[in-house]
Amino acid sequence: MASSVKHPAAVQEAWSLVGKLFWQMRPRLLAVAGELGLTPPQMFALRALDPEQPVPMRELAAQLHCDSSNVTGLVDGLEAHGLVERRSAQHDRRVRMLVVTERGAEVRRRINDVVEEVPPALASLSAEDQRALRDILRRALG
Which of 1, 50, 71, 86 could bridge across to 61 with cysteines, CB 3.0–4.6 Å? Predict the structure, then answer.
């Protein structure tokens, strides 16, 4: 449902530009997913997992804002690639915990390297503009 709140044109344009900047990264993200044999949702699921902290499948579903049944298919694919393992929780054997494998941690680092690569459009800004953008985004994120 569309919001009926009208925002100033400047903030509306700023939001649109943030979206465009994000979508400029899409080809790079799709390329790395393809190189790794992953679908984009599998790639995002792996990024959401912490190699140091196993999590229940329902927690991954919450992080991805999707139904637990959708996570099952994503985890099936990640498990088939040897990137995660399902293990029973020590506190309750009915709870399935997701553990990132050593290979999964390596693949996750590769994905993060691509995601964290600064787009040329931002890298070409002056140091002053880069700091201003950083500071504005920090304030916006609270």
Answer: 71
Mean predicted confidence (pLDDT) in 56-85: 94
CA distances from 97 to 69, 93, 125, 129 (A): 15, 9, 43, 44
Residues 61-84 as b or e (16 or more Cβ within 10 Å = b): beebeeeeeebeebbebbeebebb
CA distance 134 to 130: 6
Tell me the pLDDT tens digit for each residue of 116-127: 889 888 999 999
As separate numbers, helices (DSSP H) first and strands (DSSP E) second, the chain gives 8, 3
- Is the domain 26-118 a CATH 1.10.760.10 member? no
